[in-house]
Specification:
It contains 16 helices and 13 strands. By secondary structure, it is an alpha/beta fold. The chain folds into two domains: 110 residues, Aspartate Aminotransferase, domain 1, CATH 3.90.1150; 237 residues, Type I PLP-dependent aspartate aminotransferase-like (Major domain) (Aspartate Aminotransferase, domain 2, 3-Layer(aba) Sandwich). The strands form four sheets. It has a seven-stranded mixed sheet. Strands 1-12 form a two-stranded parallel sheet. Strands 5-6 form a two-stranded antiparallel sheet. β5 and β6 form a beta hairpin. α15 crosses α16. The longest helix is centred in the last third of the chain and has 32 residues. The chain starts with 13 loop residues before the first helix and ends with a helix. The structure holds (2S)-2-hydroxybutanedioic acid. Belongs to the class-I pyridoxal-phosphate-dependent aminotransferase family. Its EC number is 2.6.1.1. Homodimer. Its cofactor is pyridoxal 5'-phosphate. This is Aspartate aminotransferase.
């Protein structure tokens, strides 16, 4: 029956983990998937998460189903975290929000909802490059995926001229996907002034802005600062769509905690959108998992835990920044590796887009047991004081050929 099913390629990101696991060399390093590792290279369960779990266990919760759109207390707090207490649509009760299976699930709910109910367009513009999963998520949601220029290989920075020209040239009302902060995979974000200009173009061209905010707090260490673009757009009257993930900023990867929200015109419109979100979600997975949402809800709802969590997010962001400095220093000053490496320091968030070619990344895997995605993206969180020298030396050898 299945003889005509062709073998598919491994996932460009999660496939790297499979290759890493199969490698038995003790020096091996996994810089593929964006999952935080502590100074010892181990997964990190935040202290605030452990405490929240203790509080939860002590409260002897049951295992009942959540509503289709998830834990209402959690989604309320998730929206507050993203939009901020001053948000006009939040305060007027016109934001429709649902819990989601982390960021991917939020994007998929949003994609499916827009494909079915957005009356003006079926076209979504993604930055080039974008997170590898964006294209299949939106394509499988029933949208046509196109690209807008984002990254300039020459300057290893933002191609702002290309970005503006492509958004100006997009058909009116197209959907445009924007990374709210810590752009994945490049680590290159627009400045606040550039965001203001993007907002103006989006308004002029009546584009539908869809933000993916997978790294709130992780870019700068401040959840408010990282929400700048989202809040600026909302203050300019844009009715944005927003995907949120708590995988990175709370380290809740496998718990799959996220939220999708959509700004509507008023409470009555919100109620209608809510009803249709349920109709999109129910046949997909019925209702979302309970435990992770309860953890996030406990942290966001408790003053002490909240400030502990903020400190822990900043701690993760700071360790990554220190690894950027160390890697830059080792390549540039100690090893004098050919090339310009300043972008390793200036890029933001979990990833560095190194500029290594796919041949070099292949050589690093085969010769040095170092794994990264083929586009040369490395998860900075996989580096620590014990492996960074070995990594830098291996990069130096790969670059010199
Ligand atoms: C990544 O880009 O590595 C993360 O967002 C994890 C994933 O699911 O791809």
């Amino acid at each position: 029956t299945w003889s005509a099913v062709p073998a598919g390629p491994p996932d460009p990101i999660l496939g790297v983990t499979e290759a890493f696991k199969a490698d038995k060399d003790p020096r091996k390093i996994n810089l593929g998937v964006g999952a935080y590792r502590d100074e010892n290279g181990k997964p990190y369960v935040l202290g605030s998460v452990k405490k929240a779990e203790e509080i939860l266990t002590a409260s002897k919760p049951d295992k009942e189903y959540l509503p289709i759109t998830g834990l209402p207390e959690f989604t309320k707090k998730a929206a507050l975290l993203a939009y901020g207490a001053e948000s006009a649509p939040l305060n007027s009760g016109s934001i429709a929000v649902t819990q989601s299976i982390s960021g991917t699930g939020a994007l998929r709910i949003g994609g499916a909802f827009l494909a079915r109910h957005y009356p003006h367009s079926k076209v979504v513009y993604l930055p080039v490059p974008s997170w590898g999963n964006h294209t299949p998520i939106f394509r499988d949601s029933g949208l046509e995926v196109r690209g807008y220029r984002y990254f300039d290989k020459g300057t290893v920075g933002l191609d702002f001229v290309g970005l503006k020209a492509d958004l100006q040239a997009a058909p009116e009302h197209s959907i445009v996907l924007l990374h709210a902060c810590a752009h994945n995979p490049t680590g290159v974000d627009p400045t606040q002034e550039q965001w203001a200009q993007i907002s103006d173009i989006v308004k002029e061209k009546k584009l539908m802005p869809f933000f993916d905010m997978a790294y709130q707090g992780f870019a700068s260490g401040s959840t408010d600062r990282d929400a700048f673009a989202v809040r600026h757009f909302v203050s300019q009257g844009h009715q944005i769509a927003l995907a949120q993930s708590f995988a990175k900023n709370m380290g809740l990867y496998g718990e799959r905690v996220g939220a999708f929200s959509l700004i509507t015109s008023d409470a009555a419109e919100k109620a209608r959108v809510d009803s249709q979100l349920k109709i999109v979600i129910r046949p997909m997975y019925s209702n979302p998992p309970l435990h992770g949402a309860q953890i996030a809800n406990t942290i966001l709802g408790d003053k002490l835990l909240y400030s502990q969590w903020e400190g822990e997010v900043k701690g993760m962001a700071d360790r990554i920044i220190s690894m950027r400095e160390k890697l830059y220093g080792t390549l540039t000053h100690d090893l004098k590796t050919p090339g310009e490496w300043g972008h390793i320091k200036s890029q933001i968030g979990m990833f560095s887009f190194t500029g290594l070619t796919s041949a070099q990344t292949k050589a690093l895997a085969e010769k040095a047991h170092i794994y990264m995605t083929a586009d040369g993206r490395i998860s900075m969180a996989g580096l620590n004081t014990s492996n960074i020298e070995y990594f830098a030396q291996s990069v130096d050898a790969a670059v010199r050929g």
